[in-house]
Amino acid sequence: MIRSILQDKPTKLFISICAFFVANALIAECIGGKIFSLEKLFGWDPANFKLFGQSGLSFNLTCGVLLWPLEFIITDIVNEYYGPKAVRRISYTAVVLITYAFVMFYGAMNIPPADFWISSKTDAGINNMQLAFAGIFGQGMWIILGSLTAFLVSQLVDVFVFHRIKRATGDKWIWLRATGSTTVSQLVDSFVVLFIAFKIGNNWSWQLVLAICLVNYAYKFTMAILLTPLIYFMEARIENYLGKEVAKKMKDAAMGKDEEDFINAPAAG
Questions:
Q1: Coil, helix or strand at residue 158
Q2: Which string of DSSP letters, residue by residue, matches 51-96?
Q3: For the segment 1-27, what is each residue's pLDDT rounded down to a tens digit?
Q4: Bridge partners (DSSP) listed for residue 62
Q5: Residue 200 CA from chain centroid, whole number
Q6: Model's pTM, two decimal places?
Q7: Residue 263: its pLDDT value, please?
Q8: 26 and 101 in contact (C-beta within 8 Å)?
Q9: Cβ neighbours of residue 202 under 8 Å, at least 6 residues apart?
């Protein structure tokens, strides 16, 4: 039985997709503590624009946004071939494992460091390795809560919008359901994480939350459009691997009772 499962191409593909999905999400969370300037990356001067009364805004983004668009592309691929239940499963799996990772990070931060290790990187300009380690892995609890909540909510929104569009258009217009669902879910993601982490957690004003939300969303929206061809590339590779007949059966099954189950199912499944 185990051997037959591992030889089944749809199963092997799902395991591979799930592994990359979880790994990519965890890496995005880990590198999200670094803020970079998008303008400087391209050699431009800071934009310094104004939104909702907030001046001096520019495209300062977390490094995590470099990887998050891939999560939504993978979500659309899983939606297309495996249906909403599979998306919920990999999303819950990612949240559980990311939570586990952060618990381990906090455990590691609180383990007493060896005396020699604290000053082991002084020559590299790092005077205290314990503080550096804590600074990298010790994200605030509100940021972690906001990020995980936004991730899960936006994933479920992506599933819902994707299948609504596909129900209306059938197998045509892959770009519409993929890009449309991603642009909606990315807006939800941008707002929820800022609302929880900074409005609730750090008492930011609504004006600042909305201004930063739109700045982040502008980047995510642009990336969703630019990465649309990747959907077609991945679908072509998957259909070549599975065979057109198997791929068609999987797509039909994904659009069967799965959507009804998704809409009517309880939150934890």
A1: helix
A2: ETTEEEE--EEEGGGGTHHHHHHHHHHHHHHH-HHHHHHHHHHHHH
A3: 555 666 789 999 999 999 999 999 999
A4: 35
A5: 22
A6: 0.83
A7: 40
A8: yes
A9: 142
End-to-end, the C-alpha distance of the chain in Å comes to 25
Running DSSP on this structure, what letter comes out for residue 199? I
Looking at the predicted structure, is the pLDDT value of residue 259 above 50?
A: no
List pLDDT tens digits, range 160-183: 888 888 888 777 777 788 888 888
Can you tell me the distance from the alpha carbon of 242 to that of 55, in angstroms, rounded to the nearest whole number?
52
Q: DSSP label at 138? A: -
Alpha helices in the chain (DSSP H): 2-7, 9-31, 38-41, 68-82, 84-110, 115-118, 129-137, 141-169, 174-194, 206-226, 228-242, 244-254, 258-264
Task: Give Cα separations from 206 to 195, 196, 203, 226 (angstroms).
Answer: 9, 12, 9, 30
The position carrying tokens 């994707």 is 162
Q: What is the mean pLDDT of the chain?
A: 85
Structure tokens at 194: 């800022």
Are 161 and 185 a contacting pair, CB within 8 Å? Answer: yes
